[in-house]
Design brief:
One of its GO terms (molecular function) is methyltransferase activity. By secondary structure, the protein is α/β, with parallel strands linked by helices. The protein contains 16 helices and nine strands. The strands form two sheets. The protein has a seven-stranded mixed β-sheet with strand order 5-4-3-6-7-9-8. A two-stranded antiparallel ribbon has the order 1-2.
């Protein structure tokens, strides 16, 4: 954390007293709310909130998640363990007690507008994935996998990502010579792994030019083709299809279209693996801070929405939830990000530093609270004869 933020005075508040002074009403109300999550305003535990500007309390109470995130970016408050603070806030369901006019408008906008139409779909690539390949190389491991690792038998990030990629290939039953489509291929982590380890011939789709260029360079000499295109435009046969971490950008209005595209491209007897973050229940909104600063137009699905969208198209063969592993993945990324930050400080500035650190730690807290999940779902067009067996 930058020296300028570390040395700001924070405003201690004894949350066990009822004294009220002029201008502290918002602070006392915020303290009362946080106390329900065992988070103290002005406390000394790692997950306690140190308030640097008292007016930030009103901003947080008025604007909820958006106010909390923006005031952190502005240096109005700190907590050494933001991830644990958010974990406690979510477990106490405090997010349900703070609703603002902006929040309600955001929910209405999500319902009325197709935020993931082909024109809008490119926005997330420009805002997020095109930040700089060197930036993501520093944060991610050598595989450049930007999705949840599989930590069942892993002790570090690289091992967890290798285990995840291998699990995907084994679930798909990949064999040499099979044609694999990777929808939302990122920097080519799955395609490179599948081509090198399983002898697959791969085609990857991305809407990020920076990702496409990097993936092509990483896969030089392999039977891998990277296309800069929207998933709706693909129409050719594949033996296997996978999509890791892209479905969160499809949007509820486009779920059926998405699965129809997969169905028309999947050969008879093929398998499709969907790896996605998901909500515990259908939600009318995306988090407004995440939407504004990290993933524009994102929309996390619930299992019910996925199940309805695949009706009459696929048989659901297997559903595997290892969402708790994203906590460890995100915290590993956060450590790498902080270690590499001096290389990027001049390029991005301190407000970006706080924004990105907040993003990683808030998401870690949400997965730790089991408020978000990660599902790997295996689908087949007509059902696997004799039944599908998940590889151990």
């Amino acid at each position: 954390m930058a020296e300028g933020y570390r040395n700001q005075p924070h405003w201690p508040l004894d949350t066990g007293t009822s004294q009220r002074t002029s201008g502290t009403g918002g602070m006392e109300l915020l303290a009362e709310l946080l106390r329900e999550a065992d988070v103290r305003l002005g406390g000394e535990r790692p997950w306690d909130m140190r308030l640097h500007r008292p007016e930030a309390a009103d901003r947080i109470l008025l604007h909820g998640s958006l106010g909390l995130g923006e005031s952190y970016m502005d240096g109005d408050w700190d907590a050494p363990a933001v991830d644990e603070m958010i974990h406690r806030i979510i477990r106490a369901r405090l997010d349900r007690k703070v609703r603002s006019p902006k929040f309600l408008w955001h929910a209405l906008r999500t319902h009325l507008v197709n935020l993931q139409n082909p024109r809008r779909a490119k926005c997330v690539g420009e805002v997020h994935y095109d930040l700089g390949n060197d930036f993501f190389e520093a944060m991610l491991d050598a595989s450049m996998a930007y999705t949840c690792g599989y930590w069942a038998d892993a002790d570090d990030l690289a091992a967890a990502q290798t285990a995840k990629l291998d699990l995907v290939c084994r679930k798909l039953g990949l064999q040499p010579g099979m044609r694999l489509l990777d929808i939302g291929c990122g920097w080519g982590s799955l395609m490179k792994f599948a081509a090198e380890r399983y002898g697959a011939r791969c085609v990857g789709l991305t809407i990020s030019k920076a990702q496409a260029d990097h993936a092509r360079a990483r896969c030089t000499g392999l039977p891998v083709e990277v296309r800069l295109m929207d998933f709706r435009d693909i129409d050719e046969p594949f033996d296997r299809i996978a999509s890791l971490g892209m479905f969160e950008h499809v949007g509820r209005r486009n779920l059926r279209t998405y699965f129809e595209v997969v169905r028309r491209c999947l050969r008879p007897g093929g398998l499709f693996l969907l790896h996605t973050i998901g909500n515990n229940s259908p939600s009318a909104h995306t988090d407004p801070w995440i939407d504004r600063y990290i993933f524009p137009n994102g929309d996390l699905p619930a299992l019910r929405q996925i199940a309805r969208a695949v009706e009459h198209l696929f048989v659901i063969e297997d559903v595997h939830n290892f969402g708790a592993d994203y906590d460890r993945t995100l915290m590993a990324w956060d450590r790498r990000f902080e270690a590499a930050w001096p290389r990027f400080a001049d390029r991005y500035g301190e407000r970006f530093h706080r924004m990105w650190s907040y993003y990683l730690r808030v998401c870690a807290g949400a997965f730790r609270a089991r408020d978000l999940q990660v599902w790997q779902i295996v689908l087949s067009p007509d059902g696997v004869p004799g039944g599908y067996r998940r590889p151990s």
